[in-house]
Amino acid sequence: MSAFTFHHPTKIIFGRGSIGKLGEEVTKLGRRCILVSGRTFAKRSGYLEAIERNLSASGLTVATFSEVEPNPSIKTLYDGAAASKMGECDVVVAFGGGSAIDAAKGIAFLASSDVKLEGSFAPNEIVKPVHPVVAIPTTCGTGSEVTRYSVITDVAMRKKRTLLGLPLLPKLALLDPAFLDSLSMQMVAYTGFDALSHGFEALLSKTSNRISDMLAIECVTAICKSLVAAHNGSSESREWVFYGSLLAGMAINTTGTVLVHGMGYYLTNYHGVHHGLANSVLLPYVLRFEGDCIGEKLLRISANLCLRDPSSLLDMVEEIAEKVGIPKSLSDLGVKASELESMVSDTLSYSRNLDNNPVKVSDREVREIYSRALSGNR
Q: How far apart are CA 288 and CA 296, in angstroms?
């Protein structure tokens, strides 16, 4: 057996009604917290105000920063850190999807030091302690509540940048499936497929190990069984997808992501495509390209799902995508064939994802996958 390292110190609380434990848990970490959220759902749903009351009732002083946009920018992190410092906060509580949680990690990093973001992105690694982060996810996709990554958008360069380091791992991940009850069918599909992509990419990763494989296989099995029903409104099925997303986050915390993410960033940065949607359209094409590299792992998932073989599993993934409304081609997202060379060049710039891929890909292979995805030819 190959040697490996697996490190996961995040405390996880999962279950309906678990949000009621928030104040009690945060008081173990500090006395003054900044609550970080997005600009829309958290406010409109009334959840933000309820969480503020929960924290205040536990004796915490609460500042609120609810200005996080989808794919948070460098500027947003600096603004949030300034608000945290002004409130003399010593804990960061994130409420929302992956964008809010990623922003909270970056805010915790900036608020705990005078270091600049611009010189801190990967391949640099954060090693000094940051303010503790508590993550409350409201979507079933990113798994950011249990990862050491904070993915930030460099708006000027139209690039994704990543903060990386074990100190960024949230001290507490509090997953209350009740928040998913108000999630739209579309967002269940997009974020659920994002989690499914994380599961498959963890299996494909060069740095996968037996523990990450165990988590990723359970993730893919759970999501494949549940995503269609979750999309159609089943609360129980949404809980299972939420669980799968959590496992996927734990897996990629060790393994990182591969080609799917490297190719998907262009769609988000240049077309504003939701990150989960970008991954969901590309995932079947990448699996058809390199799924043979993990044939034994796919065979285990196929057995879990009572399928004949790995080919049947890939068929199932494509059928699920169709049932939950994922477009078949990049053309359906407004991407033009004339962008092909720009897409290839952009993908090759994400060396961290490509170096982690199970097979070495050149511009020729990336071009071929994009070409198939543009035409819908799987």
A: 15
Q: Is 325 helix (H, G, I), strand (E, B) or coil?
A: coil
A 10 A CB-CB count for 90 gives 18
- pLDDT band with cut points at 50, 70 and 90 for residue 40: confident
Q: Characterise 95 by phi-psi region: left (phi > 0), alpha (psi -120 to 50), beta (else).
A: beta
149-154/159-164 β-pairing:
antiparallel
Provide the 8-state DSSP code for 51: H
* Tens of pLDDT, residues 182-220: 999 999 999 999 999 999 999 999 999 999 999 999 999
Structure confidence at residue 374 (pLDDT): 98
- Taking alpha carbons only, the member of 199, 35, 38, 13 closest to residue 108 is 35
Position 72 scores a pLDDT of: 97
Phi then psi for residue 4, to 5 deg, are: -155, 165
Q: Are 134 and 92 in contact (CB under 8 A)?
A: yes
String of DSSP letters for 179-235 = GGGGS-HHHHHHHHHHHHHHHHHHHH-TT--HHHHHHHHHHHHHHHHHHHHHHTT-H
Coil/strand/helix, residue 59: coil
Q: In sequence order, which residues have a C-beta less than 8 Å from that of residue 186 and are 6 or more positions away? A: 325
Residue 152 scores a pLDDT above 80? yes
Exposed, middle or buried by CB within 10 Å (0-12, 13-18, 19+), for 73?
Answer: middle
Is pLDDT of 44 > 90? no
Contacts of 325 (CB under 8 A, 6+ apart): 185, 186, 189, 231
> Which residues face 92 on adjacent strands?
34, 133
Mean pLDDT of the chain: 97
* Predicted local confidence at residue 86, as pLDDT: 97
Going along the chain from its start, the domains and CATH numbers come out as 11-179 (3.40.50.1970), 184-375 (1.20.1090.10)
What stretches of the chain show up as alpha helix (H) in DSSP? 22-26, 41-44, 47-57, 74-86, 98-111, 185-204, 210-231, 235-255, 259-271, 275-290, 295-304, 310-323, 340-348, 351-355, 363-375
The mean pLDDT of 225-233, rounded to a whole number, is 98
Other C-beta atoms within 10 Å of 191: how many?
Answer: 30
Distance CA 311, CA 202 (A): 19
Contact 159, 150 (CB under 8 A): no
